[in-house]
């Protein structure tokens, strides 16, 4: 590849002859001769190539999709997209120089403020990678708070999330112990919880809504059973437009997935791990925190703070290794919430509940199907059980152009032939019709 | 040429937001679907007009500096220009509107893209297999250290220690500790690994040595093969921190240098935007003997179709839900396809050219410890500023007034008053010259002007100690503090 005239002049200024002189310090025995990769292409060629590759994907637009299980298809207002697409935000780095980064810092402070209000917790960090790693970090933090070597996790949690948390726990020598769910309600099995508690238990994680879409009604009993142990509650932040916040349930740590606020599904990433805790635990918290302060002139301003918890200062003694987080998506969540506002958020959350009720009621009327499987109230997701195998249902739906719920048979054999269906404001009457008609056709 | 950042009065969104009762007719139980005892009493988030929400954030964006605004020479962060076509791509429904739990037959395009990205990263890294699951560089390190642990465990060994040079990024020791390892830092010699000190430190307890090459001083570790030999002879592994990969593409590779495990920072080398702190993506590559330990699922190609393989009994499991930050992976894929093999090699050539050009000019004005030739970045010492009663921090803040983001400062720790500068390949010679001129202008300025900088940014220097003291991390906390701080009327 030839050098530009400008590059040659720069080399000459340095007293060098060729670009190879710049690499003279790399010993011969480790040199490679270029990269065996396809030739580059123009932007237009790239677009054509990508369109061809990606045309093999079936989207939720072309094939109505009832998958949820932690990632949901919600409407994203154009204004929220436009805000999160501002290139001053998109192309900035972690705000190490706060004087020139107030926009991002205030936006992240506002994200923290929205999450604090929704969860009723005082301290929220400026994001973790996702809900699964947030759970892993919460397990470690519970261990830092009271030192136990066992941590209890409800079985009504995404198996994938638990798998991630188990890996996080391993490094600290913490064992995850499963607590069952009530077979009728889908909520926490209080008797099982009581039997698993012990002096070496640091805390307990449950969700509301949980993996089955079920809202927890026995949280008071859970809080009482835990005593001084750390109560970690997982939430769908959108449901908090309607629901009692976990801060009022006595949660010590709250985690969740804020993808629901303005981020596309995007095959499950990037998303936004919410992480909140009580003030008294803030120094044990992982991740970046934005704090309010003032500049020399007394003007309100924001900066990253309590950095002595973090890896670049504390190195091996840090509360976590996290450096890059999901700041742009956190800002996007704040933008989404600003655009929809209180009334819009309540409306969309209500619509999710109404859609859940409507769809589960229609499915329950189809011979051979039962919905919802559990007797508790739900948010926007519910378990459907069927006489025929869930895999068969799934295949039959796909052949009709419908992406059915998540088959639960492998991870939850105790539920028999069951799948997990989600419906949001994106699902129209026609989508429900397509699903119901396809289900009715299954024999 | 002087820079002035916008100054807007943008109150926090919650300011003046009262606690109103639910709107008439609003039923939080949604027709009895939710029991009354589970319903919240109030929801205090502001109701804004779309117009006002947009104004709020657009004005905030004008008080934020990104690569699109100008030079962002943060050392080790590789803040290069991010091609817009890559951002555009991720808004396509075929990228944005697919669910991670869809049947593999319905996401063949995405699986193909990820498979091909893995193969391209294998070529750049000189490795045999790659996982795309880690969400960031530090998360890649964490994944890599778990691979180290799994490898030794598979051989019936429990090794307890990971060794690092004292110039390592802070994430290295933090990641090692998170997986349960003791961390041993060894001092550098002439800015590079002291092979004798390493030999003395390595023992049967050594699980791995983590290194970046070129290192954080921008120096190429010439003895890297010897270092690898020391580790491998002791049964330990060599881990490559890919933060500095932008210097060497097509010239050498971590695999060629005998590293066993490599992480890539797609938001650095492969031009995905950093979003004010994230999202990133930190794929991890390994030599063939470690492939069986990679996270599940693995993307398998059979003929023209792609499938997911979860049946990997020795896998470490999962480090994150689903496939990783797909939106970031897609951008990096597009960037690599657009550059091609020759283009990526030219990226490294120009990155090194630009860094050395700046180094050549600025080393006359500052101290440059540890020799001349650098790779993608270089570290100056701000010691000469002391004569004027100034510190590196003052100089960095003053650069903001000239419309340049500051370099990384006070890292690595082995250089006094460090200024770590990485211009990247995407900056023109004119921009580099303007940066040199600004640096010289600042050195000639009245010290008080520099000490009290910045002057042209949206706010002046902050009271960062107060943020830590006040601990106001949300509007909710701010209001509580105000309520407690003021006498009751």
Write the topology of this structure.
The complex is a heterodimer of chains A (443) and B (489).
Chain A: H1 5-13, H2 43-54, H3 78-84, H4 87-90, H5 102-119, E1 123-124, H6 131-146, E2 150-154, H7 159-171, E3 175-179, H8 190-196, E4 201-207, H9 219-226, E5 230-235, E6 253-257, E7 273-277, E8 289-294, E9 300-305, H10 311-314, H11 327-364, E10 369-370, E11 381-386, H12 390-399, E12 406-407, E13 418-422, H13 429-440
Helix pairs in contact in A: 3-11, 5-11, 6-7
Chain B: H1 50-61, H2 84-89, H3 93-96, H4 108-125, E1 129-131, H5 137-154, E2 161-165, H6 171-178, E3 182-186, E4 188-189, E5 192-193, H7 195-201, E6 206-211, H8 224-233, E7 237-240, E8 261-263, E9 284-286, E10 298-302, E11 305-309, H9 326-362, E12 378-381, H10 392-401, E13 408-409, E14 418-421, H11 429-444, H12 447-451, H13 464-470, H14 475-485
Helix pairs in contact in B: 4-9, 5-6, 9-11
List keywords for this structure.
heterodimer, A: 443 residues, alpha/beta, Aspartate Aminotransferase, domain 2, Aspartate Aminotransferase, domain 1, seven-stranded mixed beta sheet, four-stranded antiparallel beta sheet, globular, B: 489 residues, three-stranded antiparallel beta sheet
Structural account:
Chain A has 443 residues and is of the alpha/beta class. Chain A has two domains: 259 residues, Type I PLP-dependent aspartate aminotransferase-like (Major domain) (Aspartate Aminotransferase, domain 2, 3-Layer(aba) Sandwich), CATH 3.40.640.10; 100 residues, Aspartate Aminotransferase, domain 1, CATH 3.90.1150. Chain A has 13 helices and 13 strands. Chain A has a seven-stranded mixed beta sheet, sandwiched between helices. Chain A has a four-stranded antiparallel beta sheet with strand order 10-11-13-12, with helices on one face. A two-stranded antiparallel ribbon of chain A has the order 8-9. In chain A, strand 8 and strand 9 form a beta hairpin. In chain A, helix 6 crosses helix 7. The N and C termini of chain A lie far apart (64 Å). The model of chain A has no long low-confidence stretch (mean pLDDT 96). With 489 residues, chain B is an alpha/beta fold. Chain B has a domain of 255 residues: Aspartate Aminotransferase, domain 2, CATH 3.40.640.10. Chain B is built from 14 helices and 14 strands. In chain B, the strands form four sheets. Chain B has a seven-stranded mixed beta sheet, with helices on both faces. In chain B, strands 12-14-13 form a three-stranded antiparallel beta sheet, covered by helices on one side. In chain B, strand 13 and strand 14 form a beta hairpin. In chain B, helix 4 runs parallel beside helix 9, helix 5 packs across helix 6 and helix 9 packs across helix 11. The longest helix of chain B is centred in the C-terminal third of the chain and has 37 residues. Chain B is globular and about 75 Å long. Chains A and B meet through helix 1, helix 2, helix 3, helix 4 and helix 5 of A and helix 1, helix 2, helix 3, helix 4 and helix 5 of B.
């Amino acid at each position: 590849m030839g050098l530009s005239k400008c590059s040659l002049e720069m080399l000459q200024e340095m007293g060098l002859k060729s670009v190879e002189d710049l690499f003279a310090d790399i010993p011969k025995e480790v040199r490679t001769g270029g990269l065996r990769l396809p030739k580059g292409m123009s932007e237009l060629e790239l677009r054509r190539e990508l369109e061809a590759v990606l045309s093999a994907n079936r989207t939720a637009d072309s094939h109505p999709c009832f998958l949820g299980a932690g990632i949901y298809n919600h409407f994203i207002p154009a204004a929220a997209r436009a805000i999160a697409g501002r290139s001053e935000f998109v192309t900035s780095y972690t705000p190490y120089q706060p004087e020139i980064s107030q926009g991002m810092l205030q936006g992240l402070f506002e994200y923290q403020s929205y999450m604090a209000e929704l969860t009723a917790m005082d301290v929220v960090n400026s994001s973790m990678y996702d809900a699964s790693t947030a759970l892993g970090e919460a397990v470690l933090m519970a261990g830092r708070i009271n030192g136990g070597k066992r941590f209890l996790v409800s079985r009504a949690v995404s198996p994938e999330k638990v798998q991630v948390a188990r890996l996080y726990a391993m490094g600290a020598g913490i064992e995850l112990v499963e607590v069952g769910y009530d077979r009728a309600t889908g909520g926490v099995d209080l008797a099982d919880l009581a039997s698993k508690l012990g002096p070496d238990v640091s805390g307990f994680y449950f969700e509301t809504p949980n993996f089955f879409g079920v809202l927890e009604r026995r949280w008071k009993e859970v809080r009482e059973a835990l005593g001084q142990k750390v109560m970690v509650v997982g939430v769908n932040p959108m449901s908090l437009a309607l629901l009692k916040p976990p801060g009022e349930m006595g949660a010590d740590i709250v985690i969740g997935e804020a993808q629901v606020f303005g981020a596309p599904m995007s095959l499950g990433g990037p998303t936004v791990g919410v992480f909140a805790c009580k003030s008294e635990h803030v120094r044990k918290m992982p991740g970046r925190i934005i704090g309010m302060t003032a500049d020399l002139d007394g003007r309100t301003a924001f900066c990253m703070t309590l950095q002595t918890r973090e890896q670049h200062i504390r190195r091996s003694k840090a509360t976590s290794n996290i450096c890059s987080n999901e700041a742009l998506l956190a800002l996007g969540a704040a933008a989404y919430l600003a655009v929809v506002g209180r009334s819009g958020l309540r409306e969309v959350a209500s619509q999710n509940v109404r859609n859940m009720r409507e769809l589960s009621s229609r499915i329950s009327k189809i011979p051979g199907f039962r919905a919802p499987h559990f007797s508790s109230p739900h948010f926007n997701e519910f378990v459907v059980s069927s006489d025929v195998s869930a895999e068969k249902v799934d295949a039959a739906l796909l052949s009709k152009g419908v992406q059915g719920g998540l088959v639960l048979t492998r991870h939850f054999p105790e539920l028999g032939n069951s799948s997990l269906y989600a419906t949001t404001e994106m699902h129209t009457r026609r989508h429900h019709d397509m699903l119901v008609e396809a289900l009715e056709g299954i024999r | 040429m002087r820079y002035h950042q916008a100054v807007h009065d943008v109150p926090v969104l919650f300011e003046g937001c009262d606690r109103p009762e639910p709107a008439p007719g609003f039923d939080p139980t949604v027709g009895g679907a939710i029991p009354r005892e589970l319903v919240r009493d109030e929801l205090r988030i502001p109701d804004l007009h779309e117009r006002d929400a947009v104004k709020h954030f657009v004005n905030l964006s004008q008080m934020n500096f990104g690569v699109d605004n100008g030079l962002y020479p943060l050392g080790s962060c590789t803040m290069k220009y991010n091609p817009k076509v890559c951002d555009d791509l991720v808004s396509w429904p075929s990228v944005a509107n697919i669910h991670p739990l869809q049947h593999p037959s319905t996401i063949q395009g995405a699986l193909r893209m990820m498979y091909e990205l893995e193969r391209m990263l294998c070529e750049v890294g000189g490795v045999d297999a790659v996982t795309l699951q880690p969400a960031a560089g530090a998360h890649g390190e964490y994944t890599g250290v778990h691979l180290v642990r799994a490898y030794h465990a598979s051989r019936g060994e429990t090794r307890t220690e990971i060794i690092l040079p004292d110039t390592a990024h802070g994430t290295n020791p933090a990641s090692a500790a998170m997986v349960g390892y003791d961390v041993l830092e060894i001092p550098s010699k002439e800015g590079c690994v002291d092979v004798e000190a390493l030999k003395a430190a390595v023992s049967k307890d050594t699980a791995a040595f983590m290194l970046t090459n070129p290192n954080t001083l921008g120096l190429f570790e010439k003895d890297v093969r010897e270092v690898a030999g020391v580790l491998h002879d002791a049964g330990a592994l060599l881990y490559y921190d890919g933060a500095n990969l932008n210097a060497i593409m097509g010239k050498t590779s971590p695999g060629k240098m005998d590293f066993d495990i490599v992480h890539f920072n797609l938001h650095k080398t492969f031009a995905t935007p950093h979003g004010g702190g994230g999202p990133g993506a930190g794929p991890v590559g390994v030599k063939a003997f470690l492939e069986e330990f990679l996270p599940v699922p693995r993307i398998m190609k059979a003929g023209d179709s792609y499938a997911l393989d979860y049946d990997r009994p020795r896998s470490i499991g999962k480090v994150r839900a689903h496939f990783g930050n797909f939106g970031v992976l897609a951008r990096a894929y597009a960037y690599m396809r657009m550059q091609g093999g020759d283009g990526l090699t030219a990226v490294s050539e120009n990155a090194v050219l630009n860094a050395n050009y700046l180094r050549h000019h600025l080393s006359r004005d500052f101290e440059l410890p540890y020799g001349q030739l650098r790779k993608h970045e270089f570290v100056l010492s701000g010691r000469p500023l002391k004569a004027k009663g100034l510190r590196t921090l003052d100089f960095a803040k003053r650069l903001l007034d000239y419309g340049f983001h500051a370099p990384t400062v006070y890292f690595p720790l082995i250089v006094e008053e460090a200024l770590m500068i990485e211009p990247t390949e995407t900056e023109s010679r004119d921009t580099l010259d303007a940066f040199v001129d600004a640096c010289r202008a600042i050195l000639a300025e009245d010290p008080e002007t520099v000490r009290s900088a910045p002057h042209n940014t949206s706010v002046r220097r902050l009271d960062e100690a107060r943020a830590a003291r006040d601990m106001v991390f949300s509007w909710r906390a701010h209001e509580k503090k105000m309520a407690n701080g003021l006498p009751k009327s």
